[in-house]
Structure formats: structure tokens, C-alpha cells
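Hello Y.,

Per our agreement to keep a running log of every chain we model this quarter, I'm adding this entry. I've kept the format consistent with earlier entries: sequence first, then predicted structure.
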Amino acid sequence: MAERLYRDIGNKIRRELAKSSLAIGDKLPTEREYAELFGVSRTLVREAFIMLEIEELIEVRKGSGSYLRNNLTSEPVNRVSDVGPFELLQARQVLESAIAAQAALTITKTDIKELLETLELEGAEIDSAEKANAADRNFHLLIARSTQNALLLDTATRLWDMRDGNPMWQQLHSRIKDSSYHGQWLEDHRQVMVQLKKRNANGARDAMWQHLENVKQTLFDLSDTEDPDFDGYIFAQPTNQQLGSP
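Predicted structure for the entry above:
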């Protein structure tokens, strides 16, 4: 299997550091500088930094930058999951947008009732990160169940299991102290719900796509260590044609 792109960039950074004169405690070049050096996106560099942080080679300090934490070797070390958090989010965005469109065509009154109850619970538990995250997962998987397609539900569940058990995702979340983003995600869920109740497939697809775009941007901004004014979405916005809109 070909090496994951973020892992390849992480190992390139490792080799660059091994050739440098940096000592433990010294600050690394910025993510933007590495992105320009290797000709890749900052999301790939962000995932590479998370990999090196998990391996305890660097320390990432929000608002300050990244610092060399331990002695290193130019040899690659593979101790993390094969899927980066932003790669996983992109896969979810593609799949769950299509699932929302299908659910709008097949959703039942019982499904709608359960989804509305889940939204109420999510709103009530918004100050509890653990409970809000559980309600978030439940909302997305209830939509997948509303397709009445067991394979789509199983696939969506596998992606969420990968998210919850992914060490890179957990490392990313460990650096995020501001939980106010739950309010934005709750409002996004409500917009998806509006389209599902209307049985508007294109509207549900668009609302879910935008929700997961907001999730990606929020995680990128809240975990940014060097450029709080970074602007622009991580991935290009889809056209109406890509979304299947008429």
C-alpha cells in the first residue's frame, strides 16, 4: 500500500530536522514554511505535525508554534493510525452528504421524531463535551439509519468508530480548549433537520456538506498554532453540479 501523504510529509520533516542544527527546545519552522518547502497543503503539514507530536518528537503549543521535544532520527517511525483527521473528515463529508440526500427521500415519521429528540438532547448537553459529542454521533448515525439501508448505516458507523478510536483525532482534540463550537454544530444540525423534514434531497445534501465543511474549518482554526487569521476553507467549496443540484 502506498504511504499516506501526511506520513510521507512527516518523515520528510523528520529528515529535515535531522539535518538541521536545532536542539531540544528550539522552535521549528512554521507549518506554512513546510507547506511551501514541500509544495503541499497546510492540512497535510498539520496532520504530519500531529503524527510527530504523538511520537513525542515535537511539542505543539497553541499560539506559539512547534518545538523540538526529543532527540530524533532521520529514520521513519510508524506508530500512528494510517488515516489523518482531515482525510477522515473529507471521507465523511463525501459519504454523509450523499446519505443525507438519500435519507430525505426515505425518512419516516418515527425517524424524524428520534432525530428531533436527539437535537433537544444535544442542546441540553451542549456544555458537556462528552455528552454533546455522543449526541452529535447519534444524530449523524440516525440519519444514516433513516436511509433504510443497512450497508450505508454500517459504513457510516465504521467511519465514526475510526474517528473515535483514531489517535491523531484524539491528539487534535486535546489541543482544543474552546468548546463554543458545539453551538455552531448544533445550529448546522438544525439546518440539516429542516431539509430532512421537507424531504428536500438536494437541500439535505447541501446542508450536511456545509456542516462538515464548518467542522473542518473549526478544527483547523482552533488548533492553529501560528496563524489565527488563516482564511479560506480547507477544501474547495463544491459547485452545484458536484452537489447534484439542478
